[in-house]
# Entry
Amino acid sequence: MTTPLLEIDNLRVDFDLPTGPVTAVKDVSFSIGENQTLALVGESGSGKSVTSTAVMRLLPEMARISGRIRFAGEDLAQASAARIRQLRGNDISVIFQEPMTSLNPLQRIGRQVAEVLKKHRGMSGKAARTRVLELLEQVGIPEAQRRIDSYPYELSGGQRQRVMIAMALACEPRLLIADEPTTALDVTVQAQILELLRDLQRRYGMAILFITHDLGLVRQFAERVCVMRHGELVESGSTAEVFAAPRHDYTRMLLEAEPHGHKPPVAADAPLLLQARDMRVRFTTRKRLFAADDVFEAVRGITLDVQRGQTVGIVGESGSGKSTLGRALLRLLDSQGQLRFEDTDISGFDKALMRPLRSRMQVVFQDPFGSLSPRLTVGEIISEGLRVHFPELDRRERERRVIEALEDVALDPLMRKRYPHEFSGGQRQRIAIARALVLKPDFLLLDEPTSALDRSVQVTVIELLLHLQDKYGLTYVFISHDLAVVRALSDTVLVMKDGVVVEQGATESVFADPREAYTRELMRAAFVDHAA
Amino acid sequence: MTSSSNASADDRSATVAGESLGREAWRRLRQNRAAMASLVMLGVMTLACVVGPWLLPWGLAEVDWNAFGVPPTLEGNHFLGTDANGRDLLTRTLHGGRISLSVALVATLVSLVIGVLYGAIAGYMGGRVDSLMMRFVDIMYSLPFMFLVILLMVVLGRNILLIYAAIGAVEWLDMARIVRGQTLSLKRREFIEAAHALGVRDSKIVLRHLIPNSVGPVIIYVTLTVPKVILLESFLSFLGLGVQEPLTSWGVLISEGTSNMQGAPWMLIVPAVFLAVTLFCLNFLGDGLRDALDPRTR
# Structure
């Protein structure tokens, strides 16, 4: 048997924090052979990224590494800084999660890719440019001749990730570390990037260490899988085996954390709560003095009915206008077209006219870190709406309702004295739900409420939303790019692309038998057929 | 992050009674030794400047005909020496501290109140209102400072208030720009949007959400403003537009001291030490306040 390319043996990483040492990775061992793909799976905080950065020795100085990291027979844990620099980008390359920030915005992409070649291969000038062109073509950048002189802002997210891949591949590395390479991308783009990686692996015979939280991708992409939790390896084996017969409870929990089930339908004659006719939202992208302003229409004539008690799912990729539509439905954005809430025509209502209605239509946003003011306590955050809409309440009554709302979202009422930064993502999302719920709304706009959360947390939040809908007869508009979640939650679904509705109908019929090519493409890319 | 459903998992501080941000900030500030020492030092300094001149045997303009430009000595009770005109330096420095500290306090408060509100409103309203408000700031910037002071002097007459007014009128401009920048980035955050969705009034959004969240850079800037103001005042006085003899200020004393630096270094060192200590303390206190007001630092 040949020795594996990368062999990690009893790796342990401790961080010396001012508050005391914290163990991020504990006794992790695995190995990858040439041409192999190993997936490191885990939720946030599981230590998977720390493990991969330890291989590159990119950890901050307060980290202490023990154990062995053998790369092609050489122990990287002991290697000198100079030797590591030689290896980085040359034999071992990384692709990071965030393509938007991992390129220098002030340099043309050609130059950034060429930098690697210059450093490790001593190539420059024409030779480097030829090689860069070749690489850009290999990673599927259209019109590479022209694009080589583009700046990062001129490229889409998927294209930027391709440039990052080109950079990583420039020196034909033997090991590629892909740290959540597709998490920030749309599902269709994600599928293309994975296809590209697989193709390049075949061509170069490199090993890939693939780090992800998405089990669907693992099944598609990796031969072997290691599941991590709290810095420990809980299970490892071939992908097929682990998926077919998970041995560890945690793995089983992760696998079952795929949302499933269906929402019981509402009565067909349930009254209409929200009606939108031919909604249009325009943004002025550039003001001109002597000509018509440049205008971008983000939502282009959407008609939508929401019955009381219903959940309407809106799916689409980034830039499809789904969030804009959601905000326009709440009149947080100005729109054209008719909009009715119950019997009131609210199209054209301004802030003051909307204010009395605000307690009845509420919203939960995507980012649990951005949607709570860091300087207010949880209690203050939740009671803010009460102060606006029920100023007659005294302190004790406000307090009582805050406690009730916190209990509704299964948080300890004592937590109202604390600040948002002390809570995890899932808990913050519960606080955001409590803030909406305390007003006893009829209608709740959920704008990607689970996208920033780990799978297992996602499931609990979704269960909570279903429970609350049942308890209070809530009506939801649920915006998401995650088809599996939408399927589990909604009665009807609306597929959006470029500001228009591509397909619309009862959830089951759309999922079972998508009529439009775009919907089919979305579903194939999202691997929904596997998850169901 | 894994067990959010487990709501009561972590309630180590849940028993802490409901504390307002102010009280909790005070508690955190007290834990910061450097900031507390600075606070005490500033208190002592202020008290000395206010009360000191009454307790000392020499008056502000009283000349000791036996002691022209003597170094610090116990003879004749000139603890920190006298200046070239035989006036007691400690007395003059403490008197000067009254002017310098009050100018610093007033000008900083003016810049804080006007600048923060103005900047937050401009940034929050955006669009045409923002353009108009910020163009006004630009116009104020482009006015030559001296011209403004002379103009005010014509209006107000020669008066100590003039310094407050002139410096206050200029200092809030920077603050307004800083706060506007903060506001522009904050107002896109989702918690502001959530406040809109709750139907919170604009004024409440500015006061409750925007201003508290821009407090970090504001405090840092305040600690930079104070020395600037003190030096600006001495510059005005030097040109004859500020405090006039026999009144004095730290800036004036320092500039007098500079001219006598070779023969009588204490005339520079004494007021300079007072100023330096004050500024040091303000910096430490500023850092401490910034951390104390941020709930994320425990």
